[in-house]
């Protein structure tokens, strides 16, 4: 059973309810009961009208408002009533509720927000996309495992290629923290790392090109890069439509190319993926984009279901432990943890 | 007279020579004499066949090879024989030669690499685009002045709007260094800053949207953002052409929309701008893109000419001094400097 927080989506709780119904997945839905009539036969409803908004201080709001839908939904996952969490609410609130209730995986420094990039070729995962504006090398190393295990479990990539985002391909390019993370990842690769293949540094150029399966970076750079990519696509699309609207011949041409352009747009449609994933927690947590309609919400719920069924969290824990990259004070290998 | 380093461009010194001729600007051209026959009537040639490549350690190469064309060209500027430097060679080598020979403006912490973004609306300057992978708040504050004075002098923007790149618009969003830079810039704005208007934080979304005239960031984030933007445009353009090539009707449509798409491409053509600008040095330095042909090289040379004629460097020095944001140990105001 997937816990779904129905509050906070731009199109309101009813759009989330429609997404629940569309997903066909068993769900426990938290939100204002009167808006959740159309959740479908496989959903149970918990009346939880209280919303934590994007303009509130998330940790404070989560602590002081246990009745909020996102807190109740996270609680249901923490208690084992549900197996994963999906919300289209404010990212900060979801992150705070997940951290405080569901909690980090043992030995994980920081959960990361991962996003499947709208690339044209195969999917590329970018993390961190904004959960941690400052990171240390050991965080970046863990992100490589978090991202690789997601791509294995949920996207069927057997041995993901992991790239470290920097300002040049050469291993000497980057900030001191990036150089140190590169050194550690290269060391692990030489030691015969099985979870992923370390590709070395990648550049901004590589994000839309799907050079690797996972791009690891800090949450500041990742957030900026993601937004630049989204906005460049949107602005270019807008400019093309404007140009096509001028003159008669281009307009006729525009009609004729409309179908191929639509196909292209569908290929890069974020609703197909289901949103961002919070990795490094004890249960799968999906942050659907606030703008998603029922299609996107259904994708998010199915993604959560897949993460549970494919044991994403268990695989991640095992990979981190086997690699000996857990936070110090926590067993450094599977053997030690037993 | 503009010093032009003809070595290092992808299309070879002859393409640079053609750009010199096309510019119509007086130039002193450094490169292999045999390839520079077509520099036009307003150019003098200095035979300097030695190239510093992109794979060399720049500072070391500049120090040990004074005969290299980029070093001789920078020297000509340092000695006052030329007023500005243009090169299509490796950015690192140009930066090293400029730092070692032309030198920083008095009181400037770090020169920054600035790039006019290929936005569709009015031009937006991004800096730092890669000269400094790590920066402190005082560097970011200086970048605001460097960028604003360039936009004033070379792009005719009377009072540029400056944004600080972060992960959210709210002033509490960002790394500690970004928050501190925000605080200082806001303080200057409240004190009646005349050189620019501080817009506050901008996000990755804003880069292609021309929300502000100048976007200030560290060289790591700026480099990644610029490359993501370039690559997203290129990949999307490629995908559109692929889609249009399928089927007969779309192909006919494709023919009809070819002209408007070409007009669009021309509007975002980086060769129109002339390349990246190294700001914070004692003379204007332009790094033309390695891929530029004669059109781009000519734009770069004209941009250098404009920076000289419009006294970009002198305006920058005056603005930094008036604002009291010079490196400590250097006079903090114009009055003190006299």
From TrEMBL, chains A, B:
Subunit-structure text: Homodimer. Probably interacts with PlsY.
UniProt-listed Enzyme Commission number(s): 2.3.1.274
Keyword Transmembrane: no
Pathway connected to this protein: Lipid metabolism; phospholipid metabolism
UniProt GO molecular function: phosphate:acyl-[acyl carrier protein] acyltransferase activity
Keywords, comma-separated and alphabetical: Acyltransferase, Cytoplasm, Lipid biosynthesis, Lipid metabolism, Phospholipid biosynthesis, Phospholipid metabolism, Transferase
Claim: Lipid metabolism is one of the keywords in the record: yes
Primary enzyme class: transferase
Compartments, record wording: Cytoplasm
Any one Pfam family match given in the protein's UniProt record, by short name: FA_synthesis
Reactions accelerated catalytically: a fatty acyl-[ACP] + phosphate = an acyl phosphate + holo-[ACP]
Superkingdom classification of source: Bacteria
PANTHER family noted in UniProt: FATTY ACID/PHOSPHOLIPID SYNTHESIS PROTEIN PLSX, PHOSPHATE ACYLTRANSFERASE
Function: Catalyzes the reversible formation of acyl-phosphate (acyl-PO(4)) from acyl-[acyl-carrier-protein] (acyl-ACP). This enzyme utilizes acyl-ACP as fatty acyl donor, but not acyl-CoA.
GO CC annotations on file: cytoplasm
InterPro entries: FA_synthesis, Phospholipid_synth_PlsX-like
Family: Belongs to the PlsX family.
Chief place where the protein resides: cytoplasm
Annotated protein name in UniProt: Phosphate acyltransferase
One of the GO biological process terms: phospholipid biosynthetic process
């Amino acid at each position: 059973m997937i816990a779904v927080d129905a509050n906070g989506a731009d199109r309101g709780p009813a759009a989330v309810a429609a997404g629940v119904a569309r997903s066909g997945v068993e769900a426990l839905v938290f939100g204002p009961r009167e808006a959740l009539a159309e959740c479908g036969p496989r959903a149970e409803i918990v009346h939880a009208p209280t919303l934590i908004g994007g303009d509130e201080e998330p940790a404070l709001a989560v602590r002081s408002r246990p009745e909020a839908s996102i807190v109740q939904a996270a609680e249901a996952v923490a208690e084992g009533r549900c197996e994963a969490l999906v919300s289209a609410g404010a990212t900060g609130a979801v992150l705070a509720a997940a951290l405080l209730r569901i909690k980090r995986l043992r030995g994980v420094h920081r959960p990361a927000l991962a996003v499947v990039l709208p690339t044209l070729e195969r999917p590329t995962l970018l993390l961190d996309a904004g959960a941690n504006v400052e990171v240390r090398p050991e965080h970046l190393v863990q992100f490589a495992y978090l991202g690789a295990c997601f791509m294995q479990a949920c996207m069927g990539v057997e041995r993901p290629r992991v790239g470290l985002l920097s300002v040049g391909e050469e291993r000497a390019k980057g900030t001191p923290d990036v150089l140190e993370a590169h050194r550690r990842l290269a060391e692990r690769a030489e030691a015969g790392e099985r979870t992923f293949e370390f590709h070395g540094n990648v550049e901004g150029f590589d994000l839309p090109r799907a050079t690797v399966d996972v791009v690891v970076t800090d949450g500041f750079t990742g957030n900026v890069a993601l937004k630049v990519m989204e906005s460049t696509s949107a602005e270019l699309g807008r400019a093309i439509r404007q140009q096509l609207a001028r003159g008669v011949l281009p307009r006729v041409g525009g009609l004729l190319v409309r179908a191929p352009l639509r196909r292209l747009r569908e290929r890069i449609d974020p609703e197909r993926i289901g949103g961002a994933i919070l990795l490094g927690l004890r249960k799968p947590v999906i942050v659907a984009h606030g703008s998603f309609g029922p299609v996107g919400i259904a994708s998010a719920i199915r993604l959560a279901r897949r993460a549970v069924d494919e044991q994403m969290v268990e695989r991640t824990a095992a990979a981190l432990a086997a690699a000996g990259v857990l936070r110090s004070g926590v067993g450094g290998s599977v053997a030690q943890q037993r």
